[in-house]
């Protein structure tokens, strides 16, 4: 695995609830994520005929970039909603771009505010979090959909698919996990135990991927229910070469499939960098795997009972290969 | 300027008040900062005769590494104080290393807790923040000193010196400041205004430094008062070559000078990487400077009235050179 500097992504930085979103740094990172922003731009600009004269809702509008894409595509009116104070900047930006008559920005929780219209034709939203679902706004998008979207209305994007694979990652596992065995001569194994339970959000080099990719969860934003965001599903991955396995890796693909020109992007290690990077789950032991051998298991994901912003993820897996058999249940927590 | 990946350091991650310090990630970054941690280690281990049989107070003990250094150096007893929940991990670590009888860890604010002893012989603390003073714990160290340190007691470290210089930084200024002129075709100049007021914490390549270094503030931790942490002081820097100036850069050096073997480290661009990096203040215009020409001014620093955790920094400067004369007053805020 390669990292961007000495530290992997700090999960606590993406934190709506303390309004760190009001700071422009996180928006800078998202805007400069070219895969993300140009995918939205293309999905909207290449489907101008769909936006022409329509009422659009932007859930979690941030600095207003998606709202402005929609307005420039001929939307009759765009309503942008965000609970963060960044919305004050967004209003200024919308006004500076001469779009104040086309875009209305409302501060508040989607679940609590009342739009000035009963229904909207299209919902646009960049709701995705790390591991797709960590601190994601998908549940808010579903609320907005059920309350405001007309029958037959459209959602951009409308498809998300989560994947799992296996990686060889000895060096970085030494740096992130085994480091705690000896910290300037001291035993920090109590931190090691915590580190093993914490998925690591970081950029992974595509060359360390040992297995094929198993899609384990597909979300159709048009029909998904809140309950669908807690799940336990099977997976099976097959080694593509002889190697060691130190971790599972997860990523997701996003699709805007309702336009005449569908647009997709991937956050996988094989694709261009996105600020979502990939999510790595270190395994308690190292597997020695032979090309064609499989790892089978289940992956479960649900909000933490005590703190629904945290995500509990359980990966159960079994492996019966030439060089050994193993079976583990691993609890992880994103917090 | 070179950056570690797409984003400079996110200031909000170093945030005691929401207890993100309880997450081990920030401690991992600090422990893995070898310049920082080995400087403390050396300052303590190479002065074992000073620690032998002494009572030591560790202000902001984190995972307990400095407390353990002191205990290993023969301290009679070490008291570690931290308000973060990381102290629960620190207790486990101290116990795992067989030092539970030598180290007592107390959770709470230094200003509010009561130590089980009246006085201590030595205070150790890693209190430094970005730009030395942003979210620093120095004021807490001063409180601890006045309440607990015996007359003639020692503080590790005891010296801090802040420096200012000038850098050529056209490319990165384009990326961080001028970027906002055109964001996917939209005018984000309202964010640009904010970006210019926000010092950037990032690693700066030593080769972009155009001027000499001016020490503008020296802090003696043994004698400093809280009032000394708000100041307005003059500076003067001299160009070492013909070049452009796009920004001021600040950094600090730290000294452990009370032992028989003084130890120093620097967080400057010329020195090894530390997690404090450097702090960059972009200027509103670009200066064209000739070797030997000077920039004169003042730098003022004080906690924000409304939010004392924020730092207001004002740099006033004037320049009269071959290619122009300029005078500016620039307000910055670290928040």
From TrEMBL, chains A, B:
Q: Name one Pfam family in it.
A: Methyltransf_25
- Judging by the UniProt lineage, the source's domain of life is Eukaryota
Please classify the protein's predominant subcellular localization into one broad category: nucleus
Tell me if Chloroplast is a UniProt keyword of this record.
Answer: no
Question: Which SUPFAM superfamilies does the UniProt entry name for this protein?
Answer: S-adenosyl-L-methionine-dependent methyltransferases (SSF53335)
Record's subcellular location: Nucleus
Swiss-Prot/TrEMBL keywords: Methyltransferase, Nucleus, S-adenosyl-L-methionine, Transferase
Per its UniProt record, what InterPro entries does this chain match? Answer: Arg_MeTrfase, Methyltransf_25, PRMT_dom, SAM-dependent_MTases_sf
Q: Signal peptide position in this chain?
A: none
Positions of the Methyltransferase domain: 56-130
Write out the GO MF terms.
Answer: histone methyltransferase activity; protein-arginine N-methyltransferase activity
Task: Tell me which residues make up the Protein arginine N-methyltransferase domain.
Answer: 158-321
Q: Which GO terms describe its biological process?
A: methylation
PROSITE patterns, per database record: SAM_MT_PRMT
Provide the Gene Ontology terms for cellular component.
nucleus
State the protein's name: S-adenosyl-L-methionine-dependent methyltransferase
| Organism of origin | Absidia repens
